[in-house]
Amino acid sequence: MSAFTDVSFAAGVHLFDAGQVADKLYIIKQGSVELLDGKTGQVFATLSPGQPFGEQAILAGGVRSATARAKVDTVCMELTATGLQQVLSKESDISRIVFRALLLQLYMANRLRQKS
Fold it and tell me: Strand, coil or helix: what is 44?
């Protein structure tokens, strides 16, 4: 049984908004998602199938720094914070450490990109 659930979003629907508590992460199966800057509302990234998003804030237990909006009708795989913790608990200690280190690097790269 997979920890992921397929969810569908119509074009223009917000998957989450900046400032909300992060409780899910997503991987796009079909369609595309725009990420909007939480302060300006401007699109800073467009994601396509296979790309994950929302994972940084969920692991940090934080809040969303961006808004995610379906650009077209979109299907995503959704994983809740609880489901993610269950998946990670089944992995070796080194796998969890490497996974968290990679997410930290991604978070830092995104923060630098937003400041430029």
Answer: strand
Domain of residue 34, residue span: 5-115
CATH number of residue 111's parent domain: 2.60.120.10
Q: Which residues contact 97 (CB under 8 A, 6 or more apart)?
A: none
Give the confidence band of 1 by pLDDT, cuts at 50, 70, 90. Answer: very low
The tens digit of pLDDT for each residue in 13-48 reads 999 999 999 889 899 999 999 999 988 999 999 999
Number of folded domains in the chain?
1
| Region at 68 (left for phi over 0; alpha for psi -120 to 50; beta for the rest) | beta
pTM of the predicted model over 0.85:
no
Alpha carbon of 89 to those of 2, 95, 97, 104, 109: distances in Å? 15, 10, 12, 19, 26
